């Protein structure tokens, strides 16, 4: 039996990942799989808050599995699964919802953001933090790798564990946020945080042509000798000493520096893009990996839920 701590995280299947997604979270999944027993899922139940199309959901979910394999997640070391293959998570989320007040959930950043934009907010968006709490604590997470802006999700899970354990007895581990301090927000091509909603991304598996187009569109400040937005993206993939020497040599030559960034991005993205193509050609193997991961996690979480049901009185002993 593994004595490693358990790491849990997931990615929503809401479209092509960009390099901000990679450096903000996905890279860590690959880097940390040697040190932890990793349980990484496709958050397709969460995606239902925005995707209500069968074909899109199925394709996007499959694509995330391909993305995981392409960045180097090893199914022998990391359990990959679909959130929806473990229906106990939705059951546990309901139990948590019955312990949680509306004012508490109204503190959630995603809800406040949606409310500020006067959106018609569906119940899934409102309850989102409690399904996320179930995602984290049902698989016995010790650690959850998050950026600073995602820390609240783990705090909600910790509050929920504290409340459940206090009412029903010690049941869930207290998860810790594994804050990735070194991961600042990746700047987009316009200098804002890289985000699909800002349309300022460089896709993680971009073609060479897409890389050229994205890099040449990076907004630069003509008053500075060093184009900061170009440098900030370049610094993600290049050693600082080499980079500083290049930017000193090419000071003020923005086109040259953009071309250098484009070439380095091609060298960085190319091997992952090729690995993804290889996996794309083996759909049966990919489906087998995700099915086996789902069966494994369903068994683990089913056993946990027997204990939970027993404690809250949902198993009839009379």
How would you explain this protein's 3D organization?
- The chain is mostly helical.
- It folds into 2 domains: 6-184 and 283-312, HUPs (Rossmann fold), CATH 3.40.50.620; 196-277, Orthogonal Bundle (Tyrosyl-Transfer RNA Synthetase), CATH 1.10.240.10.
- It is 54% helix and 8% strand.
- The chain contains 13 helices and 5 strands.
- Strand 1 (6-11), helix 1 and strand 2 (37-42) form a beta-alpha-beta unit.
- Helix 4 (88-97) packs across helix 7.
- The longest helix has 30 residues, at 283-312.
- The chain is globular.
- The mean pLDDT is 93.
State the gist of this model.
With 318 residues, the chain is mainly alpha-helical. It is built from 13 helices and 5 strands. It folds into 2 domains: 209 residues, Rossmann fold, CATH 3.40.50; 82 residues, Tyrosyl-Transfer RNA Synthetase (Orthogonal Bundle), CATH 1.10.240.10.
Number of helices: 13
Quick check: average pLDDT? 93
What portion of residues is helical?
A: 40-55%
Poorly predicted regions: none
Number of domains: 2
What is the class of the largest domain in the CATH system?
Answer: Alpha Beta
Which oligomerization state do the chains in this entry correspond to?
Answer: single chain
Give the H and E element order.
EHEHHEHHHHEHEHHHHH
Walk across the major sheet and give the strand order.
Answer: 1-2-3
CATH topology of the largest domain: Rossmann fold
The count of strands amounts to 5
Radius of gyration, Cα only, in angstroms? 21 Å
Query: Would you tell me the structural class of the helices and strands?
Result: mainly alpha
Strand content: 5-15%
Termini gap: 36 Å
CATH evolutionary superfamily of the largest domain: HUPs
Biggest β-sheet strands, sense, barrel: 3 strands, parallel
